Amino acid sequence: MAIMDLKFLVFLIALLLVWETQVQAETKVFNVINYGAVADGSKDNAQAFLDAWNDACQYEGNGRMYIPSGTYQLNHVQFKGPCNGGMEFMIQGTLKAPTDPKLFFVSETWINFQYVSALTIYGGGTLDGQGASAWKDNTCSTNPSCRTLPTALRLDFTNTSQIRDLVSLNSKNVHLTLYGCDNVEISNIKISAPGDSPNTDGIKMAKSKNIRIIHSDIGTGDDCIAMLDGLYDIQISGVTCGPGHGISIGSLADSRDIEDVSRITVRNCRLHDTTNGLRLKTWASPYKGRVFNLTYEDIVMENVQNPIIIDQNYCPHCRCNSTASSHVHISNVRFKNIRGTSSSEYAVTLNCSQARPCTDMRLEDIKLEYKSRGTPALSSCSHARGASYRPLRPLSCL
To answer: Which of 17, 134, 172, 326 could form a disulfide with 353 if both were Cys (CB 3.0 to 4.6 A apart)?
Structure first.
């Protein structure tokens, strides 16, 4: 009898532990309206959003910060962790960035999350950067002392998180930046800005690993996806890009502290009406680095100016030396099943470094046609070593 009582007691304790775990994991909603937010499109709601975030972040279970339907004016906000539980940032309304330079020049980021784990940003809402009010202030191409316009959404040192079902419109600068992040998935997002809007990259990443970008539509005035140094295990699939400058790695080696880029995979993507398709660019500089283990596979190009391009003599302005040679070593790069149309005669350009030539390059099943009737597409290689496999159009220069 005593043994039976002991078993029953153990069962009750286990049941209580399960119940306590479930209670702790319950999601509690923190509605910004209850913190004084007003969806009138004019009142700044930054303080209300911060107050809601702080309470949700301190909650012992899962906290959901909820922004219901409506239009919310929002000045610069910074949401900091770590938090006591998982965090949800649920946007069903539209958040509008300020248009007054006195307000948007206070920070290089509009909405910033730092040191948060298990964060989910979702809800079908919209981030409206109102970039048309600021693009005229982007003078960085001619003015070295220019002020940087703010990124719309930035995640710093954020881990095991998701961004999904979100729209980003007309950012003043980059739409979404990841820095120092690990295990982040971005899915079903739409990013949109005019093709002539300056520096409005869709997604920019650096110093991050285990990043997945899937099933998203990106059209901007700069790179749809820009990958900088310090990246490892990046997977991009099901992305439509256009207009914009394509899916890029670089520019790399503009400073001494360059970290490796490796295990980048781009699959099942479509690029249309872009200035570049799959691009890798490094500065003509003495700074050393490595880019290796890259796979580009099952990509469709439609009216793309430079479908496949490696440029290791990147030097867009007078601050660099166009006669220098890049010291970034590019190796083990595979292009397979790349098809479609090029809007320029050279569909494949592998302009590698004389100081550190590209090695282990592979072109396989490439079918790119020049849009001009009767003129075949061409390929150009410089200091590139590797192999090609039929069928190939244009004929390989490797």
So the answer is: 326
Is 215 an active-site residue? no
Does the pTM surpass 0.70? The reply is yes
Q: Of 76, 175, 245, 272, which residue is the catalytic one? A: 245
Query: CA nearest 362: which of 271, 282, 280, 296?
Result: 296
- Angstrom distance (rounded) from CA 16 to CA 29: 25
User: In order of start, what are the domains of the chain with their CATH numbers?
Assistant: 27-137+147-196 (2.160.20.10), 223-398 (2.160.20.10)
CB atoms under 10 Å from CB of 3, counted, come to 7
Q: Do 361 and 384 form a contact (C-beta atoms < 8 A)?
A: yes
Edge-to-edge strand ranges of the sheet holding 378-382 = 77-80, 109-114, 151-156, 176-179, 203-206, 225-227, 247-252, 278-283, 308-314, 346-351, 378-382
Which of 146, 162, 158 has the alpha carbon at shortest distance from 105? 146
Q: Active-site residue among 222, 223, 229, 311? A: 222
Whether 245 is a known active-site residue: answer yes
